[in-house]
Amino acid sequence: MPSMTTRRFFLGAMSAPLVGLAHRPALGSSAHGSVIDFLLQSPHDLDPAAVARDDDFWSEVGRAFTIDRSVVNLNNGGVSPSPGMVQEAMKQHLDFANSQPPPVALWRIQEPQKETVRERLARQWGVDSEEIAITRNSSESLQICQLGIDLARGDEILTTNQDYPRMLTTFRQRERREGVVLRTFSLPVPCEDDVEVVRLFEENITPRTKVILMCHMINLTGQILPVKQVVAMARAKGIPVIVDGAHALAHFDFKLSDLDCDYYGVSLHKWLFAPHGTGLLYVRREKIRDLWPLMAAEAELDDDIRKFEEIGTHPAANFLAIAEALTFHQAIGGARKEARLRYLRDYWATRLLEFSDRVLLHTSLRPGFSCGIANVSIEGLDPVALSDWLWEKKKILTTAIEHDEFSGLRVSPSVYSTLEELDRFCDAIEWVIGNGLPEPVDAG
Q1: I need a labelling partner for 39 at 20 to 30 A (CA). Which of 29, 92, 107, 332 fits?
Q2: What is d(CA 366, CA 337) in angstroms, rounded to the nearest whole number?
Q3: Does 23 score more than 70 pLDDT?
Q4: 384-414: per-residue pLDDT in tens?
Q5: What pLDDT sits at residue 39?
Q6: Is 151 helix (H, G, I), strand (E, B) or coil?
Q7: Above 60 in pLDDT, residue 443?
Q8: Which pLDDT score, from 0 to 100, does residue 440 have?
Q9: Cα separation of 362 and 69, whole Å?
Q10: For the residues 164-181, what does the mean pLDDT come to?
Q11: Which residue(s) pair with 133 in the sheet?
């Protein structure tokens, strides 16, 4: 809940010129700033579930985005658009880097500014700023951990068969190159029993298990897994856990400190709405020394979280504009955001479930086991063909999911999504249930 002190800090930070940059317009000074004013001035002590149903409130939130309303984007789980204020901040930072000698702009001015972003991210999620590295995406964050932990031939890594494909590929490369062993197991779909999840992880541990990889929220279905319980079980056995938080951070309300984990990787261009190509890596302080960076760093950085940021010359604009995305997230409020995303999920899912018994949901609707993402299948319909038809004929973007054990459409609205857009989606699905997918027209 933002306090008046926090609000003054935000507004002051948005208007005060930086040293050496006084000629620049203040970040966030456009019309988008009025949305921040509205959000910060709105009562934060109201029941989030009640706010979730207030379409006037969320209409104001939607004004912050520049999304083309001639299309319906229900794949915000892939990568989200950023609010206008974030886009503007990034452009201004990029313009500045090209208006001055870049060695001065990038390395003397902008790189030190990144420390404020680091501190704010750490404060927001309840950890030490010396445990937060700013990266380019979840893959980079997680691969730092996956490739940076020393393993010997025959050592085993344990994860589920629903983990993100790129992360499975990363460990399979270590299998081919180093002779380590990747072991996977199945989870129920959906799963509404945290004790069972912990039991499945534990029963698949062998004497050779050296690392566990787990999702906080599974990208395929939106299933939320009990990270804290799995971490505690594994720590008692001396096994580190790498947590894939790509879809969790800034999606539902929690603190990294609540999880008590050692490693957590996330993309910030999904649910924080930060610039595309931004991510975060949390490494518990005492684990930093023994984790190798992806790109080489000097030995003097062995204990420094910044060794994971040694990637060579790169634009600072993306990273600095994370600050505007964080301001936007804090102004909405994590609890209100979570409640709205769950409300939108329930809105379309409940309607389709009530419409036809051919509708099967692969995601639990119970709070605590999912949030804004859900996976739905229609009996007798191929999800790839359905997703293609929705986009080509209705301009509704979804994600087709095909897994060995289930398939369906992943649907992920966002805070700017409207009930009218979800009605368009439901109308289209209901039409297909009644009429079937039209045969594709032969272009020849």
Answers
A1: 92
A2: 17
A3: no
A4: 999 999 999 999 999 999 999 999 999 999 9
A5: 85
A6: coil
A7: no
A8: 72
A9: 28
A10: 98
A11: 281
Q: What gap in Å lies between CA 426 and CA 432, rounded to an integer? A: 10
What distance in Å separates the CA atoms of residue 78 and residue 219, rounded to the nearest whole number? 9
Q: Compute the distance between CA of residue 263 and CA of residue 187 in angstroms, rounded to an integer.
A: 22
Q: For 186-237, what is each residue's pLDDT tens digit?
A: 999 999 999 999 999 999 999 999 999 999 999 999 999 999 999 999 999 9
Q: What are phi and psi of 251, to 5 degrees?
A: -95, -55
Give the whole-number percent of the chain exceeding pLDDT 70. 92
* 174 vs 160: CA distance, rounded Å: 17
pLDDT of residue 33: 61
Give the chain's domains with CATH numbers. 118-325 (3.40.640.10), 336-434 (3.90.1150.10)
Q: What is the pTM of this model?
A: 0.90
Strand partners, 359: 378
- 86's enclosing H/E stretch is helix 84-99
Q: What pLDDT shows up at residue 38?
A: 86
Instruction: Decide if pLDDT at 280 tops 60.
Output: yes
Strand partners, 213: 242
64's CB contacts (< 8 A; 6+ apart) are 32, 35, 36, 83, 84, 85, 328, 416
CA angle 420, 362, 344 (to 5 degrees): 25
Question: Half-sphere exposure (CA, 13 Å, Cβ side) for 309?
Answer: 23
Which tokens go with 402? 């095909």
- As a whole number, mean pLDDT of residues 245-263 equals 98
For residue 124 the two structure tokens come to 């927001």
Sign of the alpha-carbon torsion through 79, 85, 91, 94:
negative
| Amino acid letter for position 10 | F
CB 248 within 8 A of CB 259: no
- Find, among 104, 35, 12, 115, the residue nearest to 322 by Cα: 115
Q: In the structure encoding, which two tokens stand for residue 276, read together?
A: 């595309």
Q: How far apart are CA 52 and CA 252, in angstroms?
A: 13
Tokens of 389: 């038809």
Residue type, position 112, single letter: P
